[in-house]
Structure prediction request, 282 residues.
Amino acid sequence: MNSVYVSVRMLSTYVSVDFFQQTFQTSLGIAQQKKFLFMVDKVNIVYKMNLVEIGDPMGPIDRREREKEKLKKEILDAARYLFARDGYDSVTMRAIAERIEYSPRTIYLHFKDKEDLIRELCQHDYSEFGKGFAKLAAEKDPVQRLKGLGLAYARFAEDFPNHYRLMFMSDSPDYEGKGEEEWKGNPEMDAYAFLLGTAAEAIATGRLHPVYKDAELLAQTMWAGIHGVLALHFSKCHDPWVKWRSLKKRVKTMVDLQVDGLLAEPVKPAKHPKPSLGKKGS
Prediction:
């Protein structure tokens, strides 16, 4: 007996390879086998055939849950890429299914419709984005924290360009997110709330120029500045007419200009010691 079993998704039983071969190869012709498997996949009884060793410590239920979550992630990743590339309105559920090589019905087992999919996608991405910012809470100086936020924002865009394009560079439908009240306005999950709070703290220190008293205005202007650097990078970075400096340098320059420019007392540039030429004759 073969030591490998075929795991059939959505079913609670497992069929051995030998049994599968004996049952189908002896009773059905090649054309009938192909037709049978095609029909099964169309109604989503079988998604894919996965080879699983008998000694797998995961039970059938745990394994199915793991596979279900893996497939859901594949759907979200495909949708994110297509929404960012083609725009929300142009992407169909069928196109998402084709990208991951599943039938459209499979998508509807996880999401009611396209709006349900984009809702969960945005909630997930904004939540993860906010959690990354919350790590900067350990920085006690709000002025330095503002700089850290700008750098972290750019790092997220560079590491996850599809996430960034979908979240900040594409039109997505307005919706009342399910569970939104749990994280909106919470600095531990809501990146804008964290930026806004940090701007307010910086104003409260008295170190900013007196003209800058509106925390909302500061937060939105700083966001716009760093977003401009990133939007140009994504849309024009291959333009040969411009001798682009590295994204890292452009981001740091923008952050320094924004934050240092807010201070009541200008930041003095660091003095670099002149190189020693040594003694004559040495």
The beta strands are 4-8, 14-16, 49-53. The first helix runs from residue 17 to 27.
